[in-house]
Amino acid sequence: MKGIEMAKAYYEAYGKPMLENDFPDLLPLIAAGLFGEGSECLGYDDGISRDHDFEAGFCLFLPGEDIVDRRRAFELERAYAKLPKEFMGARRSMMAPVGGARRGVIRTSEFFINKVGSPDGALSLHAWLTLPEQSLLEATNGVVFYDGYGEITAIRQRLARYPEDVRRKKIAGHLLLMAQAGQYNYMRLLRHGETGAAQLAVTEFVRSATRVIFLLNGRYQPYYKWSFRALRELPKLSLSAELFEYLLTTDNESETAEEKYNVIEGVAADVIDELKEQGLSEAICGDLEKHAYSVNDGVRDSEIRNLHILAAI
Fold first, then answer.
1. What confidence tier does 89 reach under pLDDT thresholds 50, 70, 90?
2. pLDDT tens-digit readout, 47-65
3. R_g over Cα of the chain
């Protein structure tokens, strides 16, 4: 059973009855679910995942102290701590004070401050441009089992996607890096005899192309160790994952290098087709750099548009 399924089963078996019987006054103010850090919050957990940071448990989110005071939060924390320590073969770790754990009773504001620097998910332009995608994903992944107050759902909806101008700015920057690393530098470095640097160029191309593909799908990219798995699940350009593995795992001898360059150009063509499909670029060519500047030109907010093209990278 996956971690999210286990968490929901644990909540239904013990958490929900505890809330209904002992905290009926708090029930309309609480949200319950499992999201944040950990492979289980992405549905990627397996037997190997259980060797660290895996536990039976769920999150109970509380609004601010003006609505639920410290005393009641502490009482709820104590009640949670008394729930069975083991469930379906998984043990529950010792709980930290309110707001200090990955599971258990957590203040909503503290959780989102920790993830995105904002208690209510309202982000500045600078934050949208610079926050790691992983942090945004951890604020919006997983599942909410129950949200009596509605606060958690509203915040997660606010953070669910990049504002369109920010998405375009990020796409533009990564397209430029794709062009520089893959279309321009890879073969040049090989001609210079710099095979190590050439492979670094391939790596940079794959890294930026992966970011572009997630952005074109309107999804946040997870931590690198889960990126390929998540990439294979995307509705658009998911087949690029196999091509990227080929680029990263093959040598740079002359025959292979020629094939790798053709793969790079093929990925570029597929990305350009999707840019056109979404109306993001007006350039008419196979040069990713020209498409990068065309995408940037389409940013409506002049403040964002006039930032350096790599400002959101």
1. low
2. 666 644 556 789 999 999 9
3. 23
Are 77 and 104 in contact by the 8 Å Cβ rule? The answer is yes
What count of other Cβ atoms lies within 10 Å of the Cβ of residue 28?
Answer: 9
Beta-bridge partner residues of 33: 59, 144
The span from the CA of 313 to the CA of 311, in Å, is 6
Residues facing residue 90 across a β-bridge: 87
Measured in residues, the chain has a length of 313
Give me the torsion for CA of 26, 28, 34, 35, rounded to 10°.
Answer: -110
Average pLDDT, the chain: 93
Residue with tokens 């090989």: 190
Distance CA 256, CA 176 (A): 25
pLDDT at 99: 40
Are 148 and 29 in contact, with CB atoms under 8 Å apart? yes
Q: What is the pTM of this model?
A: 0.92
Q: What is the largest CA-CA distance in the chain?
A: 73
